[in-house]
Amino acid sequence: MNIKQYIAARAAKELKDSDIVNLGIGIPTLVADFIPSDVQVFLHSENGILGVGPTPDPEHIDQDLVNAGKMPVTVLNGSSYFDSASSFAMIRGGHVSVSILGVLQIDAKGRIANWAVPGKSVLGVGGAMDLLEGSKKVIVTTMHTTNKGESKIVKELTYPITSERAVDLIITDLAVFTVKEDGLHLIELAPGISLEEAQQKTDAPFHIAGSFKKGKEVTA
């Protein structure tokens, strides 16, 4: 299991029976491969699928069956298809239980930037804003630092904000944080990660939760 798969597997353990779950682009798409066998969830894609399955093997890819990020997917028995208007009506109507999103940055209040880098051309915010505002719970999955070693959990966002709504849980390769009214609370460290390392690589201030624990190995 590589680092991104570890993050996805840890996020999958947050899902419960009957959850309707939207998976964002990047690490979140890997969550579909780590959903516990004893948990039944319904994966939603904003391009119009409910019932997305695990990532297909290369020999079983259907080029016409993709998620919102244009990545090949499988579908489970009983899945349904619909237009984008109906899909976004589900999101805006509060029918998505959990959204799992990737980010560029997270600030000390749990607000995220995940759709634009200043100076680079982008098509728009996509469904991220709707998912933040319409989902009952939002989980972030991300590497803790950038390729340059800079913290992605910052005091203040320097990239365009996606929504004023704070996320509920942040899962990185180093740690897990919950988001409360008074800011970020560290609840878990990944295996082999010290509190000192997490503090050194986190720009934003955070509290240490009373339930804080060192992480255990996450398995599929």
- At the first level of CATH, the class is Alpha Beta
Instruction: Estimate the helix proportion, in percent.
Output: 10-25%
Q: How far from one another are the termini?
A: 9 Å
CATH architecture: 3-Layer(aba) Sandwich
What is the SS-derived class?
Answer: alpha/beta
**Range of strand content:** 25-35%
Total strand segments? 12
Q: Considering the protein shown, what is the CATH homologous superfamily?
A: Glutaconate Coenzyme A-transferase
Instruction: Give the overall pLDDT as a whole number.
Output: 92
Largest sheet: 10 strands, mixed
Number of domains: 1
Q: Low-confidence stretches at least 5 residues in length (pLDDT < 50)?
A: none
Instruction: Note the total helix count.
Output: 5
Strands side by side in the biggest sheet: 4-3-2-1-5-8-9-10-11-12
Radius of gyration: 17 Å
CATH topology: the name is: Glutaconate Coenzyme A-transferase
Organism: Cytobacillus citreus
Family: Belongs to the 3-oxoacid CoA-transferase subunit B family.
Keywords: Transferase
Pfam family, one: CoA_trans
Features:
220 residues; alpha/beta; Glutaconate Coenzyme A-transferase; 10-stranded mixed beta sheet; two-stranded antiparallel sheet; 12 strands; 16% helix; 3-oxoacid CoA-transferase subunit B; CoA_transf_AS; NagB/RpiA_transferase-like; transferase
Describe the model.
The chain is α/β, with parallel strands linked by helices and 220 residues long. Helices cover 16% and strands 26% of the residues. The protein is built from five helices and twelve strands. The strands form two sheets. The chain has a ten-stranded mixed beta sheet with strand order 4-3-2-1-5-8-9-10-11-12. Strands 6-7 form a two-stranded antiparallel sheet. β10 and β11 form a beta hairpin. The longest helix has 10 residues. It starts with a helix and ends in a 6-residue tail after the last strand.
